[in-house]
Design goal:
Helices cover about 45% and strands about 15% of the residues. By secondary structure, the chain is of the alpha/beta class.
């Protein structure tokens, strides 16, 4: 793409920075956002001047709040399948890219936003950041690498807590459970991210490439679970139960899921 509407892309001193630029929606992604992220990551991977990639969100409120609820509320089963295709491609591009990807997190990284930071190789967060999953609260499920990677990062029981209870966790709590790598004061976030980039830029790029792909080997075998989850969740999206979750969020009221118990 020659220009972007939902993201910003720049390369400075061998570091490509990709910024989700929808602060009015807490950097929630829609179809266009996903398409542009795919394009930007491919551009960064192809650029021989780029050694490290940084993914972040515009503003000081959120890294990414997941899927845009306004977009999802208008979605049906077909829309869910189209979204799954885009997220699937994005995750393949990110995990298959041989260059290290750092998530620079300030603010909320919840729902699909938390899954997005997990897809990055490293995560540096400011002290005011918050993490968590919100799928069941919204009538959805974090099957885009959430149910697959969370148990490997934080342990089986903790992963179930995060997904089943839909609570949010401070950056310090996320660090302690192994969900992220480092927490710093807000004023040190950019310098710390840049220092990590500069450190990796001094290392062998091919060694880093092989290390990343080798580290991914075991979790790559979870790929069938992602595909399976995407197909299963398409049967939820567009249902009345799903829309009860999205409408409750938009109407700022508790969802009434009790009538859907079977």
């Amino acid at each position: 793409m020659s220009s972007y509407s939902d993201i910003l892309y720049e390369v400075v001193d061998n570091v490509a920075t990709i910024t989700i630029n929808r602060p009015e929606r807490r950097n929630a992604f829609r179809a266009e956002t996903l398409d542009e992220l795919i394009d930007a990551f491919r551009a960064a991977e192809a650029d021989r001047e780029v050694g490290v990639i940084v993914l972040t969100g515009a503003g000081d409120k959120a890294f990414c709040a997941g899927g845009d609820i306004h977009w999802e509320e208008a979605s049906d089963e077909s829309g869910a399948i189209q979204m799954a295709r885009r997220t699937t491609i994005l995750s393949l591009v990110m995990r298959g890219c041989g260059k290290p990807i750092i998530a620079r997190v300030r603010g909320f990284a919840v729902g699909g936003g938390n899954e997005l930071q997990m897809l990055c190789d490293l995560t540096v967060a400011s002290e005011d950041s918050r993490f968590g999953q919100s799928g069941p609260k919204m009538g959805s499920v974090p099957v885009w690498w959430g149910t697959q990677l969370l148990p490997r990062m934080v342990g089986e029981k903790k992963a179930r807590e995060i997904i089943f209870l839909c609570e949010q966790y401070t950056a310090r709590e996320a660090l302690e459970m192994g969900l992220i790598n480092k927490v710093v004061p807000v004023e040190e976030l950019d310098t710390t991210v840049r220092a990590w980039c500069d450190r990796m830029l001094t290392l062998s790029p091919q060694a880093l490439r092989v290390a990343k792909i080798s580290l991914n080997y075991e979790s790559d075998q979870l790929w069938p679970s992602v595909l399976h989850g995407n197909q299963m969740i398409s049967f939820i999206h567009g249902t009345e139960e799903f829309h009860e979750g999205t409408r409750a969020f938009l109407e700022k009221r508790p969802p009434q899921f009790g009538k859907f118990r079977k």
